[in-house]
Known about the structure:
Elements: E1 4-7, H1 11-20, H2 23-32, H3 44-47, E2 49-53, E3 55-59, E4 64-75, E5 78-88, E6 93-103, E7 109-118, E8 124-132, E9 138-147, E10 151-160, E11 175-185, E12 190-200, E13 203-214, E14 223-224, E15 228-232, E16 236-240, E17 243-248, E18 251-260, E19 264-275, E20 278-288, E21 295-296, E22 301-302, E23 304-315, E24 320-329, H4 334-338, E25 352-363, E26 366-377, E27 389-399, E28 408-419, E29 425-440, E30 446-463, E31 472-488, E32 491-495, E33 498-510, E34 552-563, E35 568-578, E36 598-607, E37 610-618, E38 625-634, E39 640-648, E40 659-668, E41 674-683, E42 688-699, E43 703-712, E44 722-731
Antiparallel strand pairs: 1-2, 2-4, 3-4, 4-5, 5-6, 6-7, 7-8, 8-9, 9-10, 10-11, 11-12, 12-13, 14-17, 15-16, 15-44, 16-18, 17-18, 18-19, 19-20, 20-23, 21-22, 23-24, 24-25, 25-26, 26-27, 27-28, 28-29, 29-30, 30-31, 31-33, 32-33, 33-34, 34-35, 35-36, 36-37, 37-38, 38-39, 39-40, 40-41, 41-42, ...
Amino acid sequence: MTRHYYILPAVSLLLTVLAALPxxxxxxxxxxMPETVxxxxxxxxxxxxxFTADEMQHDGDLDIITARGNVHLNYExxxxxxxxxxxxxxxxxxxxxxxxxxxxxxxxxxxxxxxELTGDIRHGIIRDLRSIxxxxxxxxxxxxxxxxxxxxxMRQVVYSPCELCIEDPSRPPLWQLKAIKVVHDKSRQTxxxxxxxxxxxxxxILYTPYLSHPDPTVKRRxxxxxxxxxxxxxxxxxxxxxxxxxxxxxxxxxxxxxxTTKQGIVLGTEYRHKFVEGELTARxxxxxxxxxxxxxxxxxxxxxxxxxxxxxxxxxxxxxxWGFDLNRASDDTYMxxxxxxxxxxxxxxxxxxxxxxxAEGFRERNYVYVGTTxxxxxxxxxxxxxxxxxxxxxxxxxxxxxxRLGGKTNLDVNILSLTRNEGTDTHRVxxxxxxxxxYIAPKGDIYTLSASLNADFYQVNSLSRGEMKxxxxxxAYRLMPQVSLDWRYPFVRQEGSVYQMFEPIAAxxxxxxxxxxxxxxxxxxxxxxxxxxxxxxxxxxxGIDKVEGGPRVNYGFKWGVFGEQGGSTSLLVGQSYxxxxxxxxxxxxGLDDNFSDIVGRVHVSPKKNLDVYxxxxxxxxxxxxxxxxxxxxxGPPSLNVTTRYIYFDRQEDSEFAGREEINGTLSSxxxxxxxxxxxxxxxxxxxxxxxMRLGLTYEDECFLLSTNLSRTTFExxxxxxEDSIMFRIVFKTLGEVAPSTSLSTQ
Length: 746
């Protein structure tokens, strides 16, 4: 049978004309035309209709056209396929039977054994309906009615996004919804159920007279999210039921009531808003203290507790932007008690919350920052009167382009005003100018000559200088010139597919002694640590208030082996020598003698599933370890182990206490759907287990179940050791919003 192709302005008119033509004429016309074009009519493009079939017949008396064999009817954005299509011109009805497929513009595909539709395929009835939605979810119904092309009313319906068992498709899916009536309204992008019940593995577990959820074309819509339930000895039984509020395409909010049996109700909120010129995120919570005794503070007792963590970044133009971070809590232990400690917008390093308001500018090789910063201490020993307020902090950084010989200059300016209700007030102006000139010798060794001058001016009030001296208030300044020469000579050798590199390094630094008089406070260089990262630094202090003075030599070497397949092993070892010992570095720092401790690191990554990183500081006298840090990740996803061990000595004049700790995680992708993990942290110095967590998750294309058991032994005022268990159940497609859901920009 010869197939004929036609493009026509209206189905009824052209089918009538074509059916009246002799069969051999149709075959002749079809044979003379290119394969990709058949009888193009100018008016056909306006109507957007295309019709193909293997065979057609026309009954002139009844005005009925019958098409058989691989019939395809395209009307605008819809495609109807069937074994047979009968078109009644008088009634403008299309009847389709046999292997019917209707492709909707939304990506939905409807299958049926019989359809009776209007000529525009927008209205009609469907028997034995089966539908695949755009997210691969499936609907089956005894029958349905199509209205306006965007509404389908169905009866005796089954819905499920779960894949059927390959070995036994007759088995019920993991979960499914059954309903007496279902309405899929595409204009409202909603699927509504009447008299519905939820089945799990074929067993009914829940009935509801009404249920609705967005169809797959919806990315974000207001509604309840999957709840989480659990229990702990601190909060008692706990249920969290988030409600997602879709305010606009660029703004949303999530309100999460958390009901606990021991601490009452906690209300958590999150707000996100994206602008053309920036974005705003804010998280917070509030709770009424329901414990037997209100949480006691120095000022009294708390009845209401809460926290806020907000962040905003806004562009003013191509150069300037401004922003803020607001992080505050009603009291020290609130966030830890209610599980808000891991909030990503909170800077909790050092046991404090940091808030700032700032403006900054970027232009070519220049950077400017102007801002103010406040802190909230969370430690029991913190005193609000001694916590500083920084207002203002001004920073300017400039680096020039390389000159004709490759040299470049840089300038850093820092202006700081730091005040306290009690204690030292510091006002500082610091300027640091420098010049660097790199040079590569003909033999390949690399030299870098640097010169710099630091000028620091201070005005201080009530600076404590120790028990033997009075507090100081007044002016102090410091001028610190410095010259350094850095040399390194990389050697590279190839053996087959392996490259080996060896690079000796040495640096000589010359600067005067006495750069840290007791009239200059130390606000930003308290946490000093000598390690491989600052071995070759000209000033090993991270801040401005303390500087490293005197002649010194830094030396060491790098060695590495690198494979073409990506495997590598690298090593760095080095030491520093200072001509004269002074009080710049505290005892135990590793730099308190002429020869420093030996620092080094080893990074071994021979294969994709093995990575070991080791850092150490060894005593120069007996090679005893004063610091050890090991990070290791080994194994494929089926069985992966990550661990970290850290040990370092306590050193004087530092906020870092001595510490020895090990933590690790064992995770396994047990099967395609099951994942488990076990993690823990142990304080080796105190010989105590600090925390342990066991997690087990099942996840497939339609269902998620996660279980987490945890134990912490941390104690701090009203915080006591805690055991908890949490469950989360998600029936996918029923209104769940993924955490990574993004906001569009206006």
